[in-house]
Amino acid sequence: MPKKLQPDKIAQIGKCLFPALIALSLATSCNNSLERTNTTHPNIIYIMADDLGYGDVGFNGQEHIETPNIDRLASEGMVFTQHYAGSTVCGPSRSVLLTGQHTGRTRVRGNPTWTLSGNPVDLQPEDITVAEELKRAGYVNGIVGKWGMDETFTTAHPLDQGFDYFFGYRTHVEAHHYYPEFLWRNREKVMLEGNVTQQKVGQYTHDLITEESMDFIKNNQDTSFFLMLSYTIPHYELTVPEDSKMPYMDRGWPKREMKAGHYHHDEEGNVTYAGMVSRLDRDVGRVMDLLEELGLEDNTLVIFTSDNGPVYDDGFFNSNGGFRGMKRDLYEGGIRVPFIAKWTGKIEEGTRSDHISAFWDFLPTVCEVAGLHPEAVTTGISYLPTLLGDKGSQQEHDYLYWEFNEAEGPIQAVRSGDWKIVKKYKSPVELYNLEKDPVESKNLAAEFPKVLDKLTSMLDNARTDHEEFPLTKIDR
After folding, report:
1. Given this model, what pLDDT does residue 3 score?
2. Disulfide check for 235: which of 51, 121, 146, 292 has CB 3.0–4.6 Å away?
C-alpha cells in the first residue's frame, strides 16, 4: 500500500507547486504564441500550391507568368525534376502527404463524394500523421490554409491529428471560394465581415492565409516548428484582386472567357490565372524574406510544391510542362509536380536532381531530419540523402503506385525505374518508357511483354482493400 502524505507535507508540496501552476497558467493563456517546447531541430515549412502545374513556374520553363520569387527559391536550393504528387486530385494527395502511404494504402483515396456509399471518408485516430511524428521530437505544428480531411466533423480535425494550430478552410468545398463568409481558427468559426461570396467582395482569403502563416512563424521563432502552408491558389474559382492582374493587361494574349456557376470566376481567364500565380509567387517571397529577417534562414528547411497537376490548361500557358494529361489523369501531367527544397548551408544552391520521389516520402524524410524513426507504417523513403548531396546513400523505390476512381472508372498507374504502366477501366494496359518518351506518346505494351508483366504484378500487389474505394466503377 502506498504511504499517506501527512498534512504538513501536502502543504509544503502545495507551496512548491503553486508558483509553477501560476507560470503554467500564464504560459497557456498567451494568445500570441504557442508553447515553446524545443529549439534543437530545424524548422520545416512545406508550401503547397493547389492545382499548380509543373510548367506554371519559371524555373520549369514558364514563359508568360512571372514567378521571380519562386525562381529565386529554386536558384538557392535544389530542384527535383521527377517528383510526384500523392494523387491527381487534392483530397487523397493530402492524405498521402500526411500519412506517408500511397493511394493504395492511405485512408482517403478519393475526394469526398467519390466513395462507394457516397459518404466522405476522413482520417481516423489510428492514422499516424507527419505532425504526430514531429510532436515526438518537440515540434510545434501549424496548418494554415486548406485542410480538407475533416468532412464529417468527427475524427479528423487538425488539432486531433497532431497539429497545435489551424487557420483556414476545414472542408473540401469550403475551399472552392476566395471570398467565403467564414474561415476556421482551431475549432471556432472566424466570420469575415463584408465578404459576399458570389459578388467576390471583401477579404481575399489567400492574403489572410499568408498573414496567418507569417504570424505563426513569428510567434514560434524561438522553438522548432513545422508549418504546412497549404495555399488554395490557383485552384478554381479563378478570381484575384485587380492589382495582381495589372502586369498582364494589354499583352495581346488570347482571351479565354470564363462562365460563372458553382465557381464564381472572373470573366477573363488567362489574365486572372496569371495574376493568381503571381500573387502566390509574391507571398512565397514574403515568407522567405521573413525567415531572413528573423534570422531563421539557416535553420529552416523549406519545400515548395503542388498537390497535383493543372486543371486550367488550354495550351497557352503550357501548364503541364509539355507532359501528357492534367488533373484527374495518371499520366505525367496529372501527377508530376514542381518541387524545390531549400536549406541554407545544408542543400547546395542551384542544384537539380533526377531522384524519383513522391509525396509519401515526406514523412520519413522529415522524421530523419528530426532524428526520429517513423512510428507510422509508411511506403515512403527518405530523400534527405539526396538533399544533402549524399547520392550514394540514397535508397530508391522499387516502384511508385497511384490509383484514382471518378467518373471514367478506376485508373491505376505504376512507375518502376524508367518504365510506367497506366491501367484504365476496361481498357488494355499501357506501357511507356519515360526516359525515352517522357510525354507518354508511344505505348510499348506489345513490344515489351516481360516488362509489362513485371509492372502489372507490382500494380496488382501494391494496394490493400478498402470498402469505400473498390476498383469498380462509381457512378455519381
Report:
1. 35
2. 51
